[in-house]
Amino acid sequence: MEQNEMRKILERVRDGALSPDEAMLKIREAPYTDLGYAMIDNHRQVRQGFAEVIYGAGKTKEQILGITRNMSDSGVKTILVTRLTGEKAAFLEQELPGFQYFEMARMGVAGEMPAPSGRGTIVVASGGTSDLPVSEEAAVTAMALGNRVVRLVDVGVSGLHRLLAHMDEIMSATVIIAVAGMEGALASVIAGLADCPVIAVPTSVGYGANFGGLSALLSMLNSCASGVSVVNIDNGFGAGYQAAMINRRMRADIRQR
Known about the structure:
The chain is of the alpha/beta class. It folds into 3 domains: 1-30, no CATH class; 32-111, no CATH class; 121-256, Rossmann fold, CATH 3.40.50. The protein has 11 helices and 11 strands. The protein has a 5-stranded parallel β-sheet with strand order 8-7-9-10-11. It has a 4-stranded mixed β-sheet with strand order 3-4-6-5, sandwiched between helices. Strand 3, helix 4 and strand 4 form a beta-alpha-beta unit. Helix 1 runs antiparallel to helix 2 and helix 6 (132-144) runs parallel beside helix 11 (236-256). The longest helix has 21 residues, at 236-256.
């Protein structure tokens, strides 16, 4: 159930077209669906503003298809599938008309990709080309959740002038996602320039002493710049989701003024 559907139920109660008991029944109907291999949270969008997201790794293509179809039948308009292989995506493209696969991000979207809503902009900055799979995961996540996204590609600190050429985008952002491996310095530099929250995403890109992204993670956690939060290694989805929640809150605050 989407928030708009919940609002319509409440408006019908207000107008006398629906009794409180009938409304409670509609709201309480099927809070989850048991498919045997998955328990789909049908009220996630009501509670959090966004529908449940399908984590594709470890699931069979048939399981992903079953979950996606059930969510679609329940009224979810945009269904996001993360960590999706090309093989599974090809199967879903055959079974689900209009299914979109974002190969670099390893993500798929069933249903419609929503138009950006609200005034905020999420900037996704990647330190290097090798960080693109993670930064694209963040960008596609934010877009699928209804946000305007601006990408800054290959703006790492080894060539600082490349980042400084994008000061207009940095200063007009609502949230910035900084994606970097190696020593992970990009987040600190951006946070020292920007006046908005910065979400740092360490990647596993780097040489031996990078320890699979641990060095970037620790650098970001120890950032001397204020306003930096850090997600787990290679967790572009988590960063995109968090940025979308911040941007949505900003839109809500604007409407209340």
